[in-house]
Amino acid sequence: MSEAAFARERPFGWPQRLICLYGIVWRESLRFLHQRERFISALVRPLVWLFIFAAGFRQTLGVSIMPPYDTYVLYEVYITPGLMAMIQLFNGMQSSLSMVYDREMGSMRMLLVSPAPRWFLLTSKLIAGVAVSILQVYAFLVVAYFWEIEPPTWWGYLTVLPALALSGLMLGALGMLLSSLIKQLENFAGVMNFVIFPMFFASSALYPLWRVQQGSPWLATVCRLNPFTYSVELIRFAFYGQVNWLALGVVAGCTAAFLGAAIIAYDPARGMLMRRGG
Amino acid sequence: MTAVTAAPPKTAVSALSVENVSHAYGERIALDEVSFHVAPSSFTVLLGLNGAGKSTLFSVITHLYASRSGVVRIFGCDVARKSGAALALLGVVFQQRTLDPDLSVAQNLAYHGALHGIGPRETRVRQAAQLARVGLADRAGDKVRYLSGGQMRRVEIARALLHWPRMLLLDEPTAGLDIKARAGLLEVVRGLIADEGIGVLWATHLVDEIRDDDHVVVLHKGRVLADDSSRSIVLAADASSIGEAFTRLTGPGREEADW
């Protein structure tokens, strides 16, 4: 047979890499469709916040005029971008949870025996997770629309897309970095508590920063140092067809930093993988 | 393929060569100057108990992580330096089950094909041939969840062959299988050597999977204690079977091969 000879001469260039990327995104989407509970819980979580938390607080918390809003807005409207970012935060952590799980189940190893460069494989995996998170956000927006939460123009649904893509990349890269540092599944639950909740609450997702500043200047500083705040603001402005340049810069910078660190952590020679044996 | 060339070109290059590979996790030494070769078209058994260092060795060969020292080459390609070229020549069946149970056999194979840069159409063509080889041609549309343990292993072998590797690595592939499934699996893999000229490294702790003319590498506590044909190892250890030879080599007080 000459098959083997062909295999040896087959290069792994960009056409092959694109096939590889497509395959990884395709598999992640298929798996997502098969895990209906995951989809439903991803949808129910923000809706609980929207329908119960926000409805309860709308009397106590009014939001005054502040960019990008040019009128007073209801509290539900204010927290919607925060909930969109929350979906991505959970998704980013969950897809890295699945990486921890995958690694234990061996399919992470399956992924890493591909001839594609490792940074490319990890980035593809990340993009697949972001694609799933964007699907979840739009499903949430459909429900929110019927709750009369919508952008000022229909363009908002389009302009928010790049913001979602970038913020999804940042949160996914953070999750990937954490997954490389976590030894076992059990430890992950702890990280969820120590990462997801502080990131969500100490941000501008639930309250505007000037309000936090009035209550606790110290907490406001923490919020300003929290990259998640900038995810929320990037999405908030993009939903209104505007760009928050500071948020864009911070999110882009953090994405590069987290992804770079994750690639180093998964690097065969320098990485953390070998420390735990196998 | 219509173009049938003669036997694969005879070269001195090993399908797999492991040269002076050492690795440690902190203080614990997992591999200590491990060296051996697997010739193309040969069946090599990596024989060792649990904890002998087989899994670490597999992680190094598949480039999950780099060893502290030493070189692993697949048909001359250094795994650490030319990992892409090396991995393209390598097919792997891991000890853990790595199929997605919720996806069909065909979907699992398509994913693997994509990871190796093979498009969906080409994968469909190849998958038919590989599934037929392992006797599962009619199961492509079935969910993996509904296959037996032995059938899943066969699918994993079909998957590992999808990108036409020249070296196949199997880590305890018969673990958890019944006698019949084990025999079937061995038959399939031994057939590959004859039909395709693939080099096979078969890690196991079960001596009854070894034939007299198989090449056997005995790994114990991270060191290679024997590296020869099964027959020669038995003779050298003055034993009556490879099982007895293995016990003598690795038994208490025999940390080193002193023959």
Instruction: Give the C-alpha Rg of chain B.
Output: 18 Å
- The proportion of residues forming helix of chain A, as a percent range, comes to over 70%
The biggest beta sheet of chain A, please? Answer: none
Per DSSP, what share of the residues of chain B sits in E-state strands of 2 or more residues? 15-25%
Extended strand count of chain A: 0
* Mean pLDDT across all amino acids of chain A: 85
Q: Most extensive interface: pair and counts? A: A-B, 46 and 54 residues
Cα(first) to Cα(last) distance of chain B is 48 Å
Please give the largest β-sheet of chain B.
6 strands, mixed
Output mean pLDDT of chain B: 88
Quaternary structure annotation:
heterodimer
The number of distinct β-strands of chain B equals 10
- CATH topology of the largest domain in chain B: the name is Rossmann fold
Q: What Rg of chain A do the Cα atoms give?
A: 20 Å
DSSP helix fraction of chain B: 25-40%
Secondary-structure element pattern of chain A, one letter each? HHHHHHHHHHHH
Give the tally of structural domains of chain A: 1
Q: Quickly give the structural class of chain A.
A: mainly alpha
Task: Give the number of helices of chain B.
Answer: 8
What number of structural domains do the residues of chain B give? 2
CATH homologous superfamily title of the largest domain in chain B: P-loop containing nucleotide triphosphate hydrolases
Task: Describe what you observe in this structure.
The complex is a heterodimer of chains A (278) and B (259). Chain A is built from twelve helices and no strands. With 278 residues, chain A is mostly helical. In chain A, helix 2 (14-34) packs across helix 6 and helix 3 (36-57) runs antiparallel to helix 4. Chain A is globular. Chain B has eight helices and ten strands. Chain B starts with 15 loop residues before the first strand and ends in a 9-residue tail after the last helix. Chain B has 259 residues and is an alpha/beta fold. Chain B has helices at 54-61, 83-88, 105-115, 120-133, 149-161, 179-196, 230-236, 242-250; strands at residues 16-25, 28-38, 43-47, 69-74, 77-78, 90-93, 167-171, 199-204, 215-220, 223-229. Chain B folds into two domains: 12-89 and 166-259, P-loop containing nucleotide triphosphate hydrolases (Rossmann fold), CATH 3.40.50.300; 101-164, no CATH class. Chains A and B meet through helix 1, helix 2 and helix 5 of A and helix 1, helix 2 and helix 3 of B.
